[in-house]
Amino acid sequence: MKKGHLLAGLVATLAFSVSASAQQSATKEECVVKCHEAAALVNLKGLAAAIKEISEPKGAFVWKDSYVLLMNLEGKMLAHPIQPELTQLPHCLLITDPTDKAIFVNFVNTARNAGHGWVEYMWPRPGKSTPAKKITYIYRVPGKDLFVGAGVYVSGMMY
Question: Does pTM top 0.85 for this prediction?
Fold first, then answer.
């Protein structure tokens, strides 16, 4: 009888842990919503206010294991709440992932040519150094030569 209670408790604890872990991962839908909110912010409050808000590491555009970034169509990072040092570069077009994919060139091309879409690449999770597979939604700010992006890390899931 005691073994049964112990096993039931262990199963309940494991189920709770898996559930809590799943809640810590951003979803593709959240990324799309956050990107549209960030683009609306640019058009509503202006670029300077949007840069300030998107750059805030504890702000509304950082959640779970994701965040919104803001770039221009020349490849200049304007706001990045997790790696603000990227905003100090003249552009990010030469940055590649471990597979030699030019990440930000793909972002710019997606924004410029399609206006929105998903880009797959390798990038470390916040606080980690090992790259993981990530897909980022890119959304061009209507009427501007700017775009926002937010991504999810994928581990064997279909997308």
Answer: no
